[in-house]
Specification:
alpha/beta, UDP N-Acetylglucosamine Acyltransferase, domain 1, 2 domains, nine-stranded mixed sheet, 10 helices, 29 strands, 23% helix, Glucose-1-phosphate adenylyltransferase, glycogen biosynthesis, EC 2.7.7.27, nucleotidyltransferase, nucleotide-binding
Length: 418
């Protein structure tokens, strides 16, 4: 008889309320987990798909800032959960349920304010997830490790070069994987016992037995000195007074044989652009074509992509690129670029290392290099971007890595001043 999956007795609680301000204008109208990624998905689809593929059928999503785009996406793309099969997908906006002045005060408070809803799920385990990272992971493996160790909390950890861990919360562990200290962005991160040149960095993924976490949240809610945050308050307290274990992402990452463990925080314009462009590589590290571990999302009903014209300097072609459904490439040369749904480009235009979000229109003779174009933008005829950084910076957002972010508001201000 097959062993019953522990995820059947677990729920996923996805924290999706962060502002994502480092993505600059890309999060002016949407929260970071709702930002588009990979041609047709949103960032939050990765955490949700991991949960569903792991066997979890009870999921809650806590939202706060600029949540409309995220809520609409979940309603459209994740509406196949059926209560009669004991499946749930609940959206939990910050709604001042207990106090008119109290929104979610921290990541732990987002769960604490919804204790009654979690109770109604009747689960033994709760997996706390961040909704703003790109990765593929089998949570069943981490959950089983948590149960076998008898831990109060198990924390998902990335293995990173030791001196690159200065930007993370870092775990010092003993030979058995028990966390002995938790250090927030240390200048000199501790190495791993079996690999002193590497460190364990927190992924913001936590597994708890629900009764234990429930009691902890109630005590934390009454503490006036707490910031009500998992990383700042609850986790350090458990490390000091309880049993916290580290789970290495390498052991539960879903990947092709021989591929590295893939995890990305696409929280800056440079990181967002690079992770999308990486998908156009001959063999990308992140396999979106894997039918065994699919990334589910809302899929619009659109026709296939179309390429038209075959004349000199007016040839509709795409080389080393990803082009989504509904796109019309009309006499445009596209190289090393990623185009989302319903992007339309016109004759004599050129796109090189460009990430174009849905419903972008590129007019004739535009020439764009190393750029991110926000949803619905109309690129005017003859616009040149990516060749003169100083000129680009007059009108657009140019990142530290030289990537130009273009929004419609920026183009409108440019047009009004010319």
């Amino acid at each position: 008889m097959a062993e019953k999956r522990l995820t059947r007795r677990a729920m996923a609680f996805v924290l999706a309320g962060g502002r994502g301000s480092r993505l600059r204008e890309l999060t002016d109208r949407r929260v970071k987990p709702a930002v588009y990624f990979g041609g047709k998905t949103r960032i939050i689809d990765f955490a949700l798909s991991n949960a569903m593929n792991s066997g979890i059928r009870k999921i809650a999503i806590a939202t706060q800032y600029k949540a409309h785009s995220l809520i609409r996406h979940v309603q459209r793309g994740w509406n196949f959960f059926r209560a009669e099969r004991n499946e749930f997908m609940d959206i939990l906006p910050a709604s001042q349920r207990y106090d008119e002045s109290m929104w979610y005060r921290g990541t732990a408070d987002a769960v604490a304010q919804n204790i009654d809803i979690v109770d109604s799920y009747d689960v033994d385990y709760i997996i706390i997830l961040a909704g703003d990272h790109i990765y593929k992971m089998d949570y069943e493996i981490m959950l089983r490790e948590h149960c076998e160790s008898g831990a109060d909390v198990t924390i998902g950890c990335l293995t990173v070069p030791r001196m690159e861990a200065t930007a993370f919360g870092v775990m010092a562990v003993d030979d058995a994987g028990r966390i002995t200290s938790f250090l927030e962005k240390p200048a000199d991160p501790p190495g791993m016992p079996d690999d002193p040149d590497s460190a364990l960095a927190s992924m913001g993924i936590y597994v708890f037995n629900w009764p234990f976490l429930r009691d902890l949240l109630q005590k934390d809610a009454e503490d006036p000195n707490s910031s009500h945050d998992f990383g700042h308050d609850l986790i350090p307290a458990i490390v000091r007074n309880g049993k916290a274990m580290a789970h290495r992402f390498d052991t539960s990452c879903v990947r092709d044989p021989g591929a590295p463990a893939y995890w990305k925080d696409v929280g800056t314009v440079d990181a967002f652009w690079q992770a999308n462009i990486d998908l156009t590589d001959f063999t990308p590290e992140l396999n979106l074509w894997d039918r065994e571990w699919p990334i589910w999302t809302y899929s619009e009903s659109v026709p296939p992509a179309k390429f038209i014209h075959d004349e000199k300097d007016r040839r509709g072609i795409a080389v080393s690129s990803m082009v989504s459904g509904g796109c019309i490439i009309s006499g445009t040369e596209i190289r090393n670029s990623l185009l989302f749904t319903q992007v339309h480009t016109n004759s004599y235009a050129q796109l090189d290392h460009v990430v174009a979000l849905p419903y972008v229109t590129v007019q004739r003779r535009a020439r764009l290099t190393r750029a991110v174009i926000d949803r619905g933008v109309v690129i005017p005829e003859g616009l040149v971007v990516g060749e003169e950084p100083a000129e680009d910076a007059r009108w657009f957002r140019v990142s530290d890595g030289g990537i130009t972010l273009i929004t419609q508001d920026m183009l409108d201000r440019r047009a009004a001043s010319l």
